[in-house]
């Protein structure tokens, strides 16, 4: 408000203003309500308007006093905001927990669902941001960025180009022991024309069905004594295989030696235990660590494939890649392989990794053949841009 100073004759001027009908009570009421303007103050007119203009109605200007206001939020919007905040904070906790699989096996289970976290964190960030809950928006926005940073490179990072000298086609399929669609699976394996096929979670019935089929492959079985399930290798050409024990859990793997572009190459099919308890989680990690060490000892190019029972972002998968193995998902995306029929919760646990002197030129999932896993089919070639030195 403008301050005024008394001048001679001020009281007479004020009397003349009031005589024109100026309502002092109305002015006070409007002053306290915040809807008046400064030129309605009588003292303003005393000091700024000539006496001969006092008989004219005053002309008001736009210098109004602004009163701060708050945005009104309805109860349903507040409820939505509170729900988004609660979900967002839970997702932030799960995002962080996924990095702590080495601390406690249960935390590693949180690492599998990065795609789901990213999808849910979008509204969990936008709603608090719109409601100006800046602290919550900062947390959820950071968690969203972290999860996207783990997912997006799988789509943007192209594999190295092949040298054009030859390819090797590999199929890995967890058929599920109780799967009744054996004929459909056998027809799919035959039509794939893969050079090497690994069939996981095979029971005695599966072994008998495959052995009695007309598939043009030699079959090598790896099933530990007393175990209900095992892994089979179906070999074509001059490939040879041997059963190897990696880790202390008694799960057997199959090491295949074959040729690619005139040079020897090692392909390992493995299937560790599912991490549904502390003991099984430790056994899975031990086997995958042993797989990584096996790969590091080889003097030839190496491929490792199978149902790892570990997603791309879990501790178990990192134990394999510590041996310098390249993830075949790079350039092909997430390709969630399990569980079939529950796409909202699907995660990638069927993998193929290889040494840097190889490259993946094709990677895709097959159709649903009665298993809870999709088959994984990949085409491998020698890389033209990098040769590994040992």
CATH topology of the largest domain: Deoxyribonuclease I, Chain A
* Tally of DSSP β-strands: 12
Our count of helices gives 12
Low-confidence segments:
31-36
Question: What keywords describe this structure?
Answer:
390 residues; alpha+beta; Deoxyribonuclease I, Chain A
Q: How would you concisely characterize the structure shown here?
A:
This protein is α+β, with helices and mostly antiparallel strands.
What does this structure look like?
This protein is an alpha+beta fold. It folds into three domains: 1-69, no CATH class; 75-151; 163-383, 4-Layer Sandwich (Deoxyribonuclease I, Chain A). It is 36% helix and 21% strand. The protein contains twelve helices and twelve strands. The strands form two sheets. A six-stranded mixed sheet has the order 3-4-2-1-12-11, covered by helices on one side. The chain has a six-stranded mixed sheet with strand order 5-6-7-8-10-9, with no helix packed on it. β5 and β6 form a beta hairpin. α1 (10-19) packs across α3 and α11 packs parallel to α12 (315-321). The protein starts with 9 loop residues before the first helix and ends in a 7-residue tail after the last strand.
């Amino acid at each position: 408000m403008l301050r005024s100073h008394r001048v001679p004759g001020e009281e007479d001027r004020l009397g003349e203003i009031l005589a024109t009908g100026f309502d002092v009570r109305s002015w006070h009421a409007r002053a306290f309500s915040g809807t008046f303007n400064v030129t309605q103050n009588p003292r303003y007119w005393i000091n700024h308007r000539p006496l001969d203009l006092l008989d004219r109605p005053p002309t008001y200007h736009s210098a109004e006093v602004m009163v701060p206001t708050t945005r009104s939020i309805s109860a349903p919007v507040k409820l939505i905001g509170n729900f988004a905040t609660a979900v967002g904070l839970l997702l932030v906790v799960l995002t962080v927990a996924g990095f702590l699989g080495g601390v406690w096996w249960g935390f590693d289970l949180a690492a599998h669902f990065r795609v789901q976290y990213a999808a849910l964190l979008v509204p969990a960030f936008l709603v608090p941001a719109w409601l100006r809950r800046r602290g919550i928006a900062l947390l959820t926005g950071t968690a969203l960025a972290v999860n996207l940073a783990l997912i997006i490179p799988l789509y943007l990072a192209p594999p190295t180009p092949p040298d054009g000298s030859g390819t090797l086609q590999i199929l890995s399929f967890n058929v599920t022991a109780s799967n009744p669609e054996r004929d459909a699976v056998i027809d799919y394996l035959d039509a794939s024309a893969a050079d090497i096929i690994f069939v996981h979670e095979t029971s005695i019935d599966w072994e008998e069905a495959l052995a009695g089929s007309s598939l043009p492959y030699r079959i090598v079985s790896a099933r530990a004594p007393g175990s209900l399930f095992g892994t089979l290798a179906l070999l074509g050409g001059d490939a040879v295989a041997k059963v190897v024990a990696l880790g202390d859990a008694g799960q057997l793997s199959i090491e295949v030696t074959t040729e690619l572009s005139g040079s020897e190459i090692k392909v390992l099919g493995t299937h560790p235990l599912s991490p549904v308890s502390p003991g099984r989680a430790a056994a899975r990690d031990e086997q995958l660590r042993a797989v990584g060490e096996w790969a590091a000892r080889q003097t030839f190019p190496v491929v490792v494939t199978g149902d790892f029972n570990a997603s791309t972002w879990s501790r178990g998968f990192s134990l394999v890649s510590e041996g310098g193995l390249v993830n075949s998902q790079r350039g092909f995306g997430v390709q969630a392989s399990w569980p079939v029929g529950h796409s909202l919760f699907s995660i990638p646990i069927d993998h193929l990794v290889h040494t840097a002197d190889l490259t993946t030129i094709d990677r895709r999932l097959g159709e649903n053949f009665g298993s809870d896993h999709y088959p994984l089919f990949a085409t491998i070639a020698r890389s033209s841009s990098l040769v590994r030195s040992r």
